[in-house]
Each structure stands twice: as structure tokens, then as C-alpha cells.
Amino acid sequence: MPRVLTIEDDLVTAQEIATELHGRGFHVDLAEDGNQGLMMALEGGYDVITLDRMLPGLDGLTLMSSLRRQGVNTPVLMISALSDVDERVRGLRAGGNDYLTKPFASDEMAARVEVLHRRHGRAGVVDNMLRGGDLELDLMARSVHRAGIEIPLLPTEFKLLEFLVRNAGHTVTRSMLFQEVWGYHFDPGTNLIDVHIGRLRKRIEQPGRKQPIRTVRGAGYVLDAFN
Question: Is the Cα dihedral 4, 81, 90, 97 positive or negative?
Fold first, then answer.
């Protein structure tokens, strides 16, 4: 059974995470502050860590940096109420593999943990490089290449593609996209996503290569990781 360490001082949130992951076949250990979380993480044996950004004793960024300095490469999903781009970048620079903002949908959180677990030990994210088929995203430089050709994207388009690549092969719903990319926790009833998906498809199109972004009718979108 895969093991997850959840470092979270809010017991309601911690229990929500644990309940959802237990239902998906994960064993979950809980740490209520940064110092305890660091000690447990250093002991090893975890497949994924979920890490709250704001913790008593030792904050999430300091904890994350300490783990990486000491050679702990367990994939980490950082969870925070701080949602601006600078905070996301700080989390990734500290060594996080993914970043989820509060409040979050439990099924999305679990999906992200599952993705990190599948990638663990494989070359999905290396030095903050994210790959899906022939697409390569540099999470630091915020740049995108497809088959070695650079593709200029606007910030919103990058966030949209990043989320699709992180969940390559899995359908992401409109509500998941609204929450992750635009910060809405509901569908505002516009064609905003359709417009941006259309633009993104045009930007990543290349002659002789299949369109990787596919519409799943009545459900959402999926990125097919063609090589």
C-alpha cells in the first residue's frame, strides 16, 4: 500500500485529506507541525508528501528546502491559501513538485497525489521540468517546447497547459480548470475555457503531429501524451 505523509496543522483539513486518500488505497500518516513533519519525512518510506505552506514550528518552505538539502527526493504536493504566482514559484523553487491552493476539491487533491505517485522514480519532473509526450515545460523559466521548438504562451495559457500536462491521460473537468487557472470555485457559465483551449490548441499545433488536447464530451478535456 503506498504511503503518504500529510503535514497539516488544521485537523479538519488533515482529516479530509486522509479520508479521501484512504478511500483511494493510500496509507496516510499525519504530522501536526513542521518540526514533527520534518522528522517523519527524514525517516523516509513515503511515496508522496502533502505539505501545508503555513505551519507552526517550521514553515512549509523551510521544511521543503531542508528535505531537499538532505537528499530527500520524495515528491511533494504543497497546499496553501496563498494563491498568487509569486507564492507558487517560491514553492516550486524550494523543491515542491506541485502546488494546490485552498480551498480545494478533495477529488482533485487525490488526483494530484496519484499523479505524483505514478511519477515517483520516473523522469516526469526533474529539476522542475515537466514533460507530457513531446511537450516540455520549464516551471522556473515558464517556457514551453514541443519537439524541441519553443512555443510562446501567455501566463494564463501556461497555467492551463501546465495543469493539463500534470494530469496527462486523465480527464480534467471544467470546474477543476476554473479553480486551478482562474481561482473560481464554481462554473461562472461563460465560454472562457472554450476560448482559451481553442487558442492553446492553435499555439501548440505542429505540422505532422497530432493535436494532444482532446475534448471529452460532457466531461472536460484530456491531454494525450503523444511522443
Answer: positive
How many Cα atoms within 13 Å fall on the side-chain side of residue 174? 16
| Phi, psi for residue 107 in degrees, rounded to 5 | -70, -30
**Host H or E run for residue 96:** none
> 72, 44 in Cβ contact below 8 A?
yes
CATH of 125-227, one of 2.60.40.1170, 1.10.10.10, 3.40.50.720, 1.20.120.430: 1.10.10.10
- Measured CA to CA, the distance from residue 75 to residue 117 in angstroms comes to 8
Tens digit of each residue's pLDDT (9 = 90 or more) over 95-140: 888 888 888 899 889 998 988 887 764 434 445 678 888 898 988 7
